[in-house]
Amino acid sequence: MTDLPLSQPAAAMPGRRTGSLLAQDDRTRRRNAAESRFRLYGVIAIAISMIALVVLLATILTGGAGAFRQTYLNIPVTLDAEVLDPNGNRDPAEMAKVLTLAYGRVLDAAVDGTIARHGIQIEGLSEADIDGLISREASAQVRDRVLANPELVGQTVEFDVLVGGRIDGYFKGRVTMDSAERDSNTSPQQLMLAQELADRGEMVTRFNWNFLTNADASDQRPEAAGVGVAILGSLYMMLVVLVLSVPIGVAASIYLEEFAPKNRLTDIIEVNISNLAAVPSIVFGILGLAAFINFAGLPQSAPIVGGLVLTLMTLPTIIISTRAALKAVPPSIRDAALGVGASKMQSVFHHVLPLAMPGILTGTIIGLAQALGETAPLLLIGMVAFVRNFPDGLPGGLMDPASALPVQVFNWTQRSDPAFIERASGAIIVLLIFLLCMNLLAIWLRRRFERRW
Amino acid sequence: MPLSWAIFASFLLAAAGYIIGRSRAFASAGPDVRKLHSRPTYHGYSVALTALFPPLAVLALAGLLRMAGVLSAEAGPVVGLLALGAGVVGLGLGVTRIGQQFQARNAVERMVLGLLMLCSLIAIVTTAGIVLSLVFETGRFFQVYDWRTFFFGTEWTPRFQGNSQLGIVPLLWGTLYISFIALLVAVPIGLFAAIYMSEYASGRVRSIVKPAIEILAGIPTIVYGLFALITVGPLLRDYFAQPLGLGNSGSSVLTAGLVMGIMLIPFVSSLSDDIINAVPQSLRDGALGLGSTPSETVRQVVLPAALPGIVGAVLLAASRAIGETMIVVLGAGAAAQMSLNPLEAMTTITVKIVSQLTGDSDFNSPETLVAFALGLTLFVITLALNVVALYIVRKYREQYE
């Protein structure tokens, strides 16, 4: 009965308010405090994730910016014909027999000449310090240019040669006089020499296009390492993924969404796809190793194998987003097409598919972006190998060994010279720029073409 | 490469078939095109497809035979010619079928449907490939190595000379420990972020914060790995591990766990966001109408209602954490040991898969084959987690639909 509470004395009812409604009692205050605490937790959670994002991006950007700048020494090099072309007939085939070692001696002489010309005198500067000023890659650099143009031999030519990684690090603030004291690869005297040369405008740090076009370089020459092969390898893999995963993924989604009868087989397929989407990527790497390399006999480190593995990985993503896009097309479109006499197939291919296209493209680009950043499966199929040569053009280049951007990053983190960490961060910046462009394209497509019914 | 030439030639043949089929259809219709059952383009497509399928089938068969070792590499040109021959025969058959009564559209649609069905089977083929390759190689591993030592051995010391101790227990311990820390970071932060965004935040805040959190989800794991290696690891070592005397290694369980936790935040928050939004508004309105504050509504009505879904989301996050590779490769270290100290380097299943399978590997030694057994274990664990999680999430969705 409803009057039961009324029969009890008012004092016996717990929590009954007696004071003014405007004054907050203890319990209300407690509840309000709990409320604002709860809100604060939410704000803190969001703040932590925002701070994590900012710190993550900031460390990578500040750490990697150095990779895009490189220090060069501008010196006039006298290309001694006696050394570089002993036979004197300027035949590139014969000159190719001259080793980079000889060019190294020519360069050393040029550096000595420059120091003498400026009259730089530094106490305790050893011959090794002067020779170590320029990169070991510099002699190869000069050799390549001379072989490309044999007429240069015998002349004095201005060269911008790479300086050593430690000197480069000095101008970027990575190496200091203190650290040079403890470093067997450089010395304070060498850094002072570099500083003198920089003061006289012979040594400059400028934008480094070579980082984007060079191949990887050996452990001793971080200053010459670039992401050229990695970009090309990633590009080839994305091409394979695009060519294979889009037609197959769209076809599979059309079948499952529009034609598949509801039976056991389609059920199995659907469960399968949603599970495949959550299989760890490294398991796909094992599959690639076992199926494509050990069983099918495809070459290791080849973009085609990487592309195939990434295709299998992206297919579930593409299928899931394509099915969502197809589902978003209202049934009235299909009914209208069927109503004017189109076959089922015609209604799908002439009406539903074009309308779902923006959604499909968006999903595909996001799937590709995921594939571009994937590392673990590529490690297992040998993409981590040291690759110095650019792969051939298409289609033969698909079988040549190549690297990939994320794998190149991993590769550089495993090297001992700290200059490679800067390169790794730089490679990540390149990777993130690619990802940003792809995602912006996806967002633009969605904004521009998406229709809501 | 004769193979790519054969493929190219068969596509050329198909294009020719389209043109021939179309013009033959026009010719057979006479002056009135309406006499044809199907439009001429369908006749073209039908010829093109009948010319394309046989050579592709021949090439696929030859590829399989070559992988199985029946066919040698020198047979390439023969296969190519055979494929082209099949293409010409298909083209001929296709052309002879053209006539006023031939139902070209229906034929084309049947073929296309078959093609679509074939494509949707790729998912099953992939799964079968994964399972087969893992099970087959794991079987080989257990022929040379005792399975009891593998599953219950507490020592992991692979040696090149043989006589390695390959016990999975320390790896499993490291994996679970790191995943636990990652979830400890990701679940509260992700859940509170999701609650705040769905229950409190204004539209403007939401439109800024939600995409920002999604950026975290789009960053490749190698970036997180590098972050762990060059920033978080040294930070923890210099400010926690060394002053507290708990260790002096940059890579540690805590490093990998923290960074992996950051990686999982968007995963947890977007999943829980969906789930919280799926709770009917009437439940909230009821609770608010009875006088509860918004936080009481969330804690006592919304969260209990969404609990099964959130458990599913946490399980999915756990499966991601267990299968994550790059962060642990760069952040957790390579020492297989079992310890409770989170500032010590430990290692995981995925790290050991990478280290056993990269570089020169001999596919007959237990040291290499063990990677497949590790992979199978990983696959089974994550699959079980996923199946349970997806089941819970689906069940939960049905509840409110």
From TrEMBL, chain A:
Keywords: Cell membrane, Membrane, Transmembrane, Transmembrane helix, Transport. Residues 1-28 are annotated as: Disordered. It is a multi-pass membrane protein. Belongs to the binding-protein-dependent transport system permease family. CysTW subfamily. Residues 231-442 form the ABC transmembrane type-1 domain. InterPro entries: DUF3333, MetI-like, MetI-like_sf, Phosphate_PstA. The chain crosses the membrane at residues 38-61, 235-256, 276-298, 304-326, 352-373, 424-445. It is found in: Cell inner membrane; Cell membrane. Its main location: membrane. It comes from Paracoccus aerius. It comes from the Bacteria. This is Phosphate transport system permease protein PstA. The keyword Membrane applies.
Automatic annotation (TrEMBL), chain B:
It is a multi-pass membrane protein. It is found in: Cell inner membrane; Cell membrane. The chain crosses the membrane at residues 6-21, 42-65, 77-99, 111-136, 176-196, 208-230, 250-268, 301-322, 369-393. Keywords: Cell inner membrane, Cell membrane, Membrane, Phosphate transport, Transmembrane, Transmembrane helix, Transport. Residues 172-389 form the ABC transmembrane type-1 domain. InterPro entries: MetI-like, MetI-like_sf, Phosphate_PstC, PstC_N. The keyword Cell inner membrane applies. Its main location: membrane. Pfam families: BPD_transp_1, DUF3708. The keyword Lyase does not apply. SUPFAM superfamilies: MetI-like. Belongs to the binding-protein-dependent transport system permease family. CysTW subfamily. NCBIfam families: phosphate_pstC. Part of the binding-protein-dependent transport system for phosphate; probably responsible for the translocation of the substrate across the membrane. This is Phosphate transport system permease protein. It comes from Paracoccus aerius. The lineage of its organism: Bacteria, Pseudomonadati, Pseudomonadota, Alphaproteobacteria, Rhodobacterales. The gene is pstC.
